[in-house]
Design a protein that fits this description.
six-stranded antiparallel beta sheet; binds FE2/S2 (inorganic) cluster; mainly beta; 0% helix; 52% strand
Length: 126
């Protein structure tokens, strides 16, 4: 494992701020969402799109009454999804799993803040 420099912490202080780094054959997106830093492979499990360049949106859920009648849709303000720009697959920022099929997930990496800098911990380059 090695810690790879991403940015100065101040550059990633704001909600939604992000950097995409290239290290060997690997691209990793590091972004701040829901107040903390997350790091994912910038490789969508669908068809390899640059998922870390996608929008962040709250999960959309359908509202059903007790009698199962449909009452529209609403945003779930507690759950945030990263949306792949190629075909719109959505990934829960907290887990990396797809909203539609939890068998698929983004690869996550550990983020480290040290002495005012942000690093991502990656396996040794192949
Ligand atoms: S490549 Fe990401 S949704 Fe298709």
């Amino acid at each position: 494992m090695q810690d790879v420099f991403v940015a100065h912490a101040a550059e990633l202080a704001g909600e939604g701020e992000r950097r995409i780094i290239v290290h060997g054959a690997r691209e990793v997106g590091v972004l701040r969402a829901q107040g903390r830093l997350h790091a994912f492979s910038n490789h969508c499990p669908h068809q390899g799109g640059p998922v870390c360049e996608g929008m962040l949106i709250h999960k959309v859920e359908e509202v059903l009454a007790a009698d199962h009648t449909y009452h529209g849709m609403r945003f779930d303000s507690t759950r945030l999804n990263l949306v792949c720009p190629w075909h719109g697959w959505e990934f829960d920022i907290a887990t990396g799993r797809t909203a539609g099929d939890p068998r698929f997930a983004l690869r996550r990496f550990e983020v480290i803040e040290r002495d005012g800098d942000v690093f991502v911990r990656l396996p040794a380059a192949q």
